[in-house]
Amino acid sequence: MVIRVYIASSSGSVVIKKRQQAIVGFLEANRITFEEVDITMLEDQRLWMYRNIPEDKHPEKGNPFPPQIFNGEQYCGDYEDFFQSKENNTVFSFLGLSSQPSVKQSES
């Protein structure tokens, strides 16, 4: 399974941008293999993300904001869930990983 972080590259919100950077930076620093999915560029991926976030994680109005994290098709959580798992030192189980994953190969 691949960890996917759904982001919005053209978000006007500083909060969203900082949250996306925090998640991506943590994954990179810990050499956790992941892919970014830009929902502002890929309409089908945006719709997939909205459909696969549990109802209890949807806001009262509108759609959930990025960043959202999935392991394959399994929803892991949003920034708040990620932050809580980081504080509790349970990020690997939050991401659905049993242990330290293989090192992300550096680009040549």
From TrEMBL:
MF terms (GO), sorted A to Z: SH3 domain binding
CDD domains, per the entry: GRX_SH3BGR
Location(s) in or outside the cell: Nucleus
A Pfam family of this chain: SH3BGR
GO CC field: cytoplasm; nucleus
Gene3D superfamilies, per database record: Glutaredoxin (3.40.30.10)
Protein name: SH3 domain-binding glutamic acid-rich-like protein
Source organism (scientific name): Aldrovandia affinis
Organism lineage: Eukaryota, Metazoa, Chordata, Craniata, Vertebrata
